[in-house]
Amino acid sequence: MLGPVNHIALAVPDLAEAMARYRDRLGAHVSAPQVLPDHGVTVAFVECGPTKVELLEPWGDASPIAAFLARNPTGGLHHICHEVGDLLAARDRLVSEGARILGDGKPKIGAHGRPVLFLHPKDFFGVLIELEEVKPTSAEA
Ligand SMILES: CC[C@@H](C(=O)O)C(=O)SCCNC(=O)CCNC(=O)[C@H](O)C(C)(C)COP(=O)(O)OP(=O)(O)OC[C@H]1O[C@@H](n2cnc3c(N)ncnc32)[C@H](O)[C@@H]1OP(=O)(O)O
Ligand SMILES: [Co+2]
């Protein structure tokens, strides 16, 4: 059920500064920032192969990363995102096994235009996990 790591996310206090540091010190290509009001973040991706680094800055008054940054004011590792082929099937199986889905349990459209869900960090050894639906291609199915 669990697929490759799509991205590893860092919460950062200043997105422009984080983007510049990845670009200038590490020579990375960084995507343009994208505001995602539904998620309460502004995001940019460090393009470094199939697994990306996602840089997150809080957006708006109710950002889900605000408390995390208050506890980690210089930033920190926020979540790991795995791809899954069927997000609703993965959700239903996880719920039946007692895992907690964050929010209202319904997928939202994430930064890549695909449905995503989050699993409670207390159910996965203190790590927040995001699941992103990536449908298998017909060759893989
Ligand atoms: C860009 C769009 C999308 C994509 O396509 O990639 C994204 O990635 S959006 C990313 C931002 N969105 C989310 O994170 C949504 C899911 N997150 C949440 O709902 C909340 O962040 C949370 C996980 C419920 C935590 O919210 P918070 O306000 O921090 O709650 P608490 O302060 O009560 O913390 C509870 C408990 O959990 C620990 N915690 C919090 N965040 C993390 C974390 N990122 N990793 C590990 N542990 C975390 C926190 O320390 C508390 O622990 P205790 O003190 O021991 O109770
Ligand atoms: Co993410």
TrEMBL record:
Protein origin, superkingdom: Bacteria
Catalytic activity: (R)-methylmalonyl-CoA = (S)-methylmalonyl-CoA
Keywords recorded for this protein, A-Z: Cobalt, Isomerase, Metal-binding
Residues of the VOC domain: 4-134
GO biological process terms on file: L-methylmalonyl-CoA metabolic process
Enzyme Commission identifier(s): 5.1.99.1
PROSITE patterns reported in the protein's UniProt record: VOC
Record keyword Manganese present: no
Entry GO MF terms: metal ion binding; methylmalonyl-CoA epimerase activity
Pfam family, one: Glyoxalase_4
Listed NCBIfam families: metmalonyl_epim
Protein family membership: Belongs to the methylmalonyl-CoA epimerase family.
Protein name: methylmalonyl-CoA epimerase
Native organism: Xaviernesmea oryzae
